[in-house]
Specification:
The chain has two domains: 189 residues, Periplasmic binding protein-like II (D-Maltodextrin-Binding Protein, domain 2); 240 residues, D-Maltodextrin-Binding Protein, domain 2 (3-Layer(aba) Sandwich), CATH 3.40.190. It is an alpha/beta fold and 449 residues long. It has 18 helices and twelve strands. The strands form three sheets. Strands 6, 7, 8, 9, 10 and 12 form a six-stranded mixed beta sheet that branches.
Amino acid sequence: MKEKNSMMNRIIKTAVCMTAVAAMSVGALAACGSSDSGSDAKGKVYYLNYKPEINDAWKALAKKYTEKTGVEVKVETAASGTYQQTLKSEFAKSEAPTLFQLSGVAEYQTWKAYTSDMSDTEPYKQLKDKSMVLKDGDSVGGVPYVVEAYGLIYNKDLLAKYIATDGAKIKSADDIDNFDTLKAVADDIQAKKDQLGVKGAFTSAGFDSSSDWRFKSLLANNPLYFEFRDDNVTEQPESIKGTYLPQFKQIFDLYLEDSTCPKSQVSSKTGDDANSEFALGEAVFYENGTWAWPDLQKAGVKAESVGMMPIYMGVEGEENQGLDVNSEAYWCINSKASDADKKATKDFLKWVITDQAGIDAISNDMGLTTPFKSFEDVKSDNPLVQAEVAYQDSGKEAVSTRPNGMFPSDEWKNQLGSALLEYAQGTGDWNAVKKAFVDNWKTEYDATH
């Protein structure tokens, strides 16, 4: 745990590490880890959480565990879009996180020297599919703790209202199983927005940091998935071709054209704006995932009023496409932590995924779907999770989000986001997006290797 210590040598060590970190690569941070922390027999746990929307739930769960066991558990949450930066900063301190999160293969390559082998932990033992882990040889460096799905969340009531209009392009939501149909419906909704009482077919494509990840990360996964599928790419490539960039452009253009706001306003639109627009019935479609349900529910959305369909871009055979499904959330235990803190962290994780209090918190309070055997009896009341299960049961081809975990760096995403914003506002063109997507992949790969 990160707590004040009056010992002068600890203060000096921290100061030296904080000064040095600006000039260090991640791999040089080992001397500044928490190797001498947690001298008490019980050890301590410090979890650096990735998701701001479940911060309160994690803190409440940590408090419950401390009350039960007496073991100190601290939870801190990085601001949206700043996790890697925050992780570097926290690892430079004398009391670094004992438990942290990585999003996939690329981040694991950066941080694997800081990951303990988790093959003896309860999360690994409880995994239904052990092939999902992050590995370095035989060492299990990261265990997925959540399986998420995302796509186009839609308002069933508004879509039914549209279907009842003269000249509606579909008779059922199930008729939308390809880009051409999605576009025809969205264009018609936009044309009838006054009649329907909406502001647009899609919520605002905001490029505030609380929202832009939906496009520079989630949406960007899809053209890469299909390219990697075609080329049988299973490991992070040095370069990419951008085969499906025309399809990426199609869906992004649709978000911008059939929106609740003019393209000139997207730079200032936030994630809260999009959530509110959908919750208030101002838009029919909202690109997001299963994790969005707690916020929508708090905003008054009824479970029976929402569904989720795949993000159709115009890829051949997409009628058989399912939702984007995988894990981009891997627990990792800090290898530089003291033995006592490592044990405390492993014990905490075991309790989290096997004790009923932890199971309830993860599945209900956080609204997460896990890959663990211990959660098999949990029936989610999250309608977006139910939509995910329905697509899995239908035999549709899920779109893996593994490519997202292969992104060469956060800078690659940020450059892509900047280019997308410039394109949306009309101050840049699609060639700049292509350059950020394709050329900058190689640049960032080389920089991180």
